[in-house]
Amino acid sequence: MADTLTLFTSIGLSEQKAKETLKNESLSSSLKEAITQAQRVHGASGVDKAMGTLLYSMASRLKDTKRLAFLSESIAQRKICTELQLAAALDFVKGHPQDPINQKEFDEACGVGVVITPEQIEEAVEAVIKKHKDQLLKERYHFNMGLLMGEARSALKWADGKVIKNEVDMQVLHLLGPKTEADLEKKPKAQKAKVTENDVKVKKEEVAVNGDAVSGEGKSLMEQLRGEALKFHKPGENYTTEGYVVTPNTMNLLKKHLEFTGGQIRTRFPPEPNGILHIGHAKAINFNFGYAKANNGICFLRYDDTNPEKEEEKYFTAIKDMVEWLGYKPYAITHASDNFHQLYDLAVDLIRRGHAYVCHQKGEELKGHNVPQSPWRDRPIEESLVLFERMKKGLFAEGEATLRMKMVMEDGKMDPVAYRIKYTPHHRTGDEWCIYPTYDYTHCLCDSIEHISHSLCTKEFQARRSSYYWLCNALDLYCPVQWEYGRLNLTYTVVSKRKIIKLVETGVVRDWDDPRLFTLTALRRRGFPPEAINNFCARVGVTVSQTTTEPHLLEACVRDVLNETAPRAMAVLEPLKVTITNLPENFKTDVRVPDFPADEAKGSHTVPFMRTVFIEQSDFREVMEKGYKRLTPEQPVGLRHAGYVISVQKVIKDTQGKVVELEVTCCSSETAEKPKAFIHWVSEPLVCEVRLYERLFLHKHPEDPSEVPNGFLSDINSNSLQVISSALVDTSVKGAKVFDKFQFERVGYFSVDPDSTADKLIFNRTVTLKEDPGKI
């Protein structure tokens, strides 16, 4: 240890830095080897501090240690003399993982032997200053000198940065002279404009389907996913990705992959068909399909149907419907079960290669991370082949045997299961198989079979990345790259399949599409437009970190879309009868109502106006209150769109003293004094059912024991659903179809529910209007 410490300090490391390096076993070993290599060229005392700094930087940044000797020698021979050259050298070896390295190409890429003269630097800086001379004279020392440096460096890639800076400083001083007092004053910072809630809105022209939504940072999802934005590898350059494992056959396999795909980006969305997709899946759909679309690629919808016990036809159908509802069309719909025969043959090959074995530990013993090493791990290959064949033929009971892979996962789990026995008929293959592959075995192999270029998955699968690469390489197959991104979570909800099933079984919700849930079918039923969900995913952005967001941000995206797309109608939820006594008994006229008052060119509809109308009970108060602007015995009110102002003449009550009818008179709004408010109304209306929804749970995190000690089922909001069976809606909604959307003026946004019949429409409140809750 002391000898190594002395070795490290001999190249210029401080004693503290040397001691820190010794704590890192991997770095310590690499650096020691690099110094030894350099000393072979220069002797024990011939490695100076400049060379030592480069050796340390190289050893700490190099991922592929088989290139250590080559780079150490390049530094020792003074081919690599600067940090700039070292960065280029590291990039070159990363992009050329296979031997032999082409020395000529390496030298050209790293500027080996390139000499930049002082005259060249002087000329390059002169050219840059001449280009910006007018602006320099105007702004003087407030000019961004970094721009001059950057352009000079671009012209002379391998020049010493310090020399360039000195030349820039000297020539600027010659042009401008010494700094004056004005030059020394700080440049005033441009004031940032305040961002209001309206500024954050997705503007009218920004509302779009199929991923062309705009994020809170002003970048559309397509822009976030396009080209270099994510720093993903280019097709066929998988080996440039950190952590990707290169084998002697990797480059040949990548070449064949490129021949097959033509360099096209290929992604997949691989849900298990054992539940309904939820809001978190919307991000996954937008990410997988969106990344392919943004880069002229293709995306598969692949059902991960490897567990026959939980799969149902309704889930297959619902998943496809939701993908298409969000605006995406799969390039092809595939199933893991399409590959069952090929997967079995690959499992046999894995055993033959000595990488898998048949094990008889029970299922419970295989759970968790502290699984003891199997006593069957070293059983002969031929024996495992025979036993695996017997598993396939159904000669073992369930749980009596599994096929396990000989590897340790990143989370410490040892020898994950590749195949297990299940005597359950499969949705597609019937009873052809009684052994089924696991996710850990199936996923990467199906990606390989489909020539996926970018295997995008949520962050929790990061622990499986090493097993993903290991299995493809163990079978000598094309290996895609796995990229992880952060999950999208919402507060005040649960999305676990098991927990939603519990909510359904206990009668808390009706089914997977109950509008209080955040499954995609539930959001569609509630009236959320797909564009709004895509806009929400764009606003959240493509993040690696896990995101937890509040529902009101999603609801804001919904309002933005519906404000532009949902025609207006009038509806009264709690009706109060109003008789206009100064109109004839048989009076009836049509009133024209714009579908979109802010843009009347988008159309209109007519509603009847008669002697009897209905208003909201809350729009009348018998006793005047300070600040109340609507109808009272002393205060008239206008009727929206009708052109009339009404004044109360008589208040009629039932035997319990409840107001049941008002007798009023009306006059034209053109001649009357302008009222303080205009209210909505209906006349000769349709009787409809309206369902009003609130949050299903009382707490933000219903699954968190510290917030909800008695479990999520104890956190149900008993007022999450209010049914109004006899709401009155104007006749313009007659003939509306399921999922048609409206804004009921002054009430909220509503959508037609599938429970509607020819005799009675049912409306779900999608979201409330954005009004000040304190407004009366």
Give the helix level as a range of percent.
Answer: 25-40%
Structural class computed from helices and strand pairing? alpha/beta
**How many strands in all?**
26
Number of helices: 25
- Give the CATH level 1 class of one domain: Alpha Beta
Beta-strand portion reads 15-25%
Backbone CA Rg:
36 Å
CATH architecture label name of one domain? 3-Layer(aba) Sandwich
Broad shape? flat
Distance between the termini: 79 Å
**Can you summarize the main beta sheet?**
7 strands, mixed
Q: What is the fold-level CATH name, i.e. the topology of one domain?
A: Rossmann fold
Question: What is shown here, in short?
Answer:
Helix content is 35%, strand content 17%. It is built from 25 helices and 26 strands.
Q: Can you tell me about this structure?
A:
Residues 264-563 form the Glutamyl/glutaminyl-tRNA synthetase class Ib catalytic domain. Keywords: Acetylation, Aminoacyl-tRNA synthetase, ATP-binding, Cytoplasm, Ligase, Nucleotide-binding, Phosphoprotein, Protein biosynthesis. This protein is of the alpha/beta class. Strands 12-24-25-26-22-23-13 form a seven-stranded mixed β-sheet, covered by helices on one side. It has a six-stranded mixed β-sheet with strand order 17-14-20-19-18-21, with no helix packed on it. A hairpin with a 4-residue loop joins strand 18 and strand 19 (644-653). The model is unreliable at 192-216 and 771-776 (pLDDT under 50).
Describe the secondary structure blueprint for this structure.
Layout: H1 2-10, H2 15-23, H3 25-42, H4 49-61, H5 68-76, H6 83-95, H7 103-110, H8 118-131, H9 133-139, H10 145-155, H11 161-176, H12 181-184, H13 197-200, H14 221-225, H15 250-261, E1 266-269, H16 279-294, E2 298-303, H17 313-325, E3 332-335, H18 340-352, E4 356-359, H19 381-392, E5 402-405, E6 417-421, E7 435-437, H20 439-449, E8 454-458, H21 465-474, E9 481-485, E10 488-490, H22 497-505, H23 520-526, H24 530-540, E11 547-549, H25 551-565, E12 568-569, E13 571-572, E14 575-580, E15 588-594, E16 604-610, E17 612-616, E18 637-639, E19 644-653, E20 659-668, E21 678-679, E22 686-693, E23 721-729, E24 741-744, E25 748-752, E26 762-768
Parallel strand pairs: 1-2, 2-3, 8-9, 10-11, 12-24, 14-20, 18-21, 22-26
Antiparallel strand pairs: 4-5, 5-6, 6-7, 13-23, 14-17, 15-16, 18-19, 19-20, 22-23, 24-25, 25-26
Helix pairs in contact: 1-2, 3-4, 3-5, 4-5, 8-10, 8-11, 10-11, 20-21, 24-25
